[in-house]
Specification:
Largest sheet: 2 strands, antiparallel
Shape: globular
Distance between the termini: 24 Å
Number of strands: 2
Order of helices and strands: HHHHEEHHHH
Oligomer: single chain
Strand order of the largest sheet: 1-2
Strand content: under 5%
Radius of gyration: 18 Å
Structural class: mainly alpha
Length: about 230
C-alpha cells in the first residue's frame, strides 16, 4: 500500500478552488495591485496548512499579516493595519513557536491539539473586552474608515489569535467570524474603489477555508484522543 497523500482530494479541491476564485476576481472583477494578489494567495496557502495543524501555516500567516497591513493602510483601514501588524503578526510568531514546541507524537507537520484551562474562560472575555475598548478609541483618533465594523474586526481577530496560540479548534471559528466582518468592510471599500472587490472575494474564500479548518481540527482532536486511549 502506497504512502497516504498529505492532502486529501477534498482539501486539494478546496485549495484549488480558493486559488482559482482569487485569480478570477483579481483579473476579471477588479484586479488591484500585485500586492493584493500576493496577499490573497499567501493567505489561501496559510489557511490550508492551518487547517491541517501544520506550523507552516503560521509562518505564512506572518507574511500575510505584513502584506495585508500595507493593503489596509492604502484604504485608511487603520484598524486593520494596526490589528494585523501590531497584534495578528506578533501572535502568529508566538503561535508558530508554540506549535513547533508541541508536535503531535513528534510529527512536526501536525500540532498537538490543545485545550483551554478553566480560568481562561473568564480571562479571555475580559482581555477581549479591554482590547476592543482600547482599540475603539485608537481607531477613532485616526479617523478610521467604517469605525464600527473595524472595531468588531479587532474583537474577532484577538479571539482568533489567542485561541490559535492555545491550539484550540475554536480558533478557526473565531477567524470565520472575522472573515464575515472583513467581507463587509471590503465590500464597503469596493463600492468606492472596484479594485477592492478581489479582497472581498478573497475573504469569502477564507470563510469557507476557516469553516473547514474547524471541522478538521475537531477530527484531529478525536483522532488524537482515540490514539491516546489506545
Amino acid at each position: 500500500m502506497g504512502k497516504q497523500a498529505y492532502f486529501s482530494k477534498g482539501e486539494l479541491i478546496l485549495w484549488g478552488a480558493s486559488v482559482g476564485m482569487i485569480l478570477v476576481s483579481f483579473f476579471l472583477v477588479g484586479g488591484g495591485s500585485g500586492l493584493t494578489l500576493a496577499a490573497s494567495l499567501v493567505g489561501a496557502c496559510a489557511l490550508i496548512f492551518n487547517a491541517k495543524g501544520n506550523p507552516l501555516g503560521q509562518a505564512l500567516t506572518v507574511v500575510f499579516s505584513l502584506l495585508y497591513g500595507v493593503i489596509s493602510w492604502s484604504f485608511a483601514y487603520y484598524g486593520e493595519m494596526v490589528t494585523y501588524l501590531g497584534m495578528t503578526m506578533p501572535m502568529a510568531v508566538a503561535a508558530l513557536v508554540a506549535w513547533l514546541r508541541n508536535p503531535y507524537q513528534g510529527d512536526r507537520a501536525q500540532v498537538k491539539v490543545g485545550k483551554l484551562r478553566g480560568w481562561e474562560y473568564w480571562l479571555l472575555p475580559l482581555l477581549t473586552g479591554l482590547v476592543t475598548w482600547g482599540f475603539y478609541y485608537i481607531l477613532r483618533y485616526f479617523h478610521t474608515a467604517n469605525l464600527l465594523p473595524s472595531t468588531i474586526s479587532v474583537t474577532t481577530s484577538f479571539l482568533a489569535v489567542y485561541l490559535t496560540f492555545r491550539r484550540s479548534p475554536f480558533f478557526a471559528l473565531a477567524y470565520a467570524a472575522n472573515d464575515i466582518v472583513l467581507i463587509v468592510l471590503w465590500v464597503l471599500a469596493a463600492w468606492e474603489d472596484a479594485s477592492y472587490w478581489s479582497v472581498a472575494v478573497c475573504f469569502g474564500m477564507f470563510l469557507v477555508n476557516d469553516l473547514y479548518g474547524f471541522f478538521n481540527w475537531n477530527r484531529m482532536k478525536r483522532r488524537q484522543e482515540e490514539k491516546g486511549r489506545g
